[in-house]
Amino acid sequence: MGDDHSSARPLRVDARRNRERVLQIAQEALASDGLTISFDEIARRAGFGVGTVYRHFPTKEALFEAVLLGRIERFVVDARALATAEDPGKAFFGWFARVVEQASENQALCDMLDSGAGMRASLQDDLGRAVARLLDRAQRAGAARRDLAGEDVLDLLRGCLAAERRARARAARVRMADVICDGMRAKGA
């Protein structure tokens, strides 16, 4: 990833602090403004010149990667860890609801999950396989509908994120993840 400095010379304390500030502000800016946020605006909000941002992240893509891809990688890791859970239905539906809850608060993360823009193909594949495995186990346990495929779940996730953001914008209390999960449950489960 673009934020790996293990092979580079260790950063000075002030440089490390500046880098962390850029990441913090970028995460907040991406959450509120999405992928359209500029380096100049991130630098302004952080209280730095744009050169400081470029020094740590030579491209906008490198900054987005540092902020967003780590979150998606954690979703994959969580899904993989839940693939051996004792209750496959609870694992599948719980994972789905947690991803919606966490991602719906971040416009850029929603954008990336929706379009795949900026996401490595290998990460998209990893996410798809992890979701398919969770779904398969939930289906075999009789908790999830048998007519769903992993791609259906990812499409439902994307749609749920958009609906959840709209509901939050109008201060609605409806939890879209609950509605979608109810629709994915097997009859009688």
Name the shape in a single word: elongated
End-to-end separation: 41 Å
Structural class based on helices, strands and sheet pairing: mainly alpha
Q: Radius of gyration, Cα only, in angstroms?
A: 19 Å
The average pLDDT score comes to 88
Total number of helical segments? 9
Order of helices and strands: HHHHHHHHH
Low-pLDDT sequence parts: 1-7
Strand content: under 5%
Largest sheet: none
Q: Provide the helix percentage.
A: over 70%
Would you write up a description of this structure?
The protein has helices spanning 13-33, 39-46, 50-56, 60-82, 88-103, 107-115, 121-140, 150-169, 176-184. With 189 residues, it is mainly alpha-helical. Helix 6 (107-115) runs antiparallel to helix 8 (150-169). The chain is elongated, with a radius of gyration of 19 Å.
Topology, pairings included?
Blueprint: H1 13-33, H2 39-46, H3 50-56, H4 60-82, H5 88-103, H6 107-115, H7 121-140, H8 150-169, H9 176-184
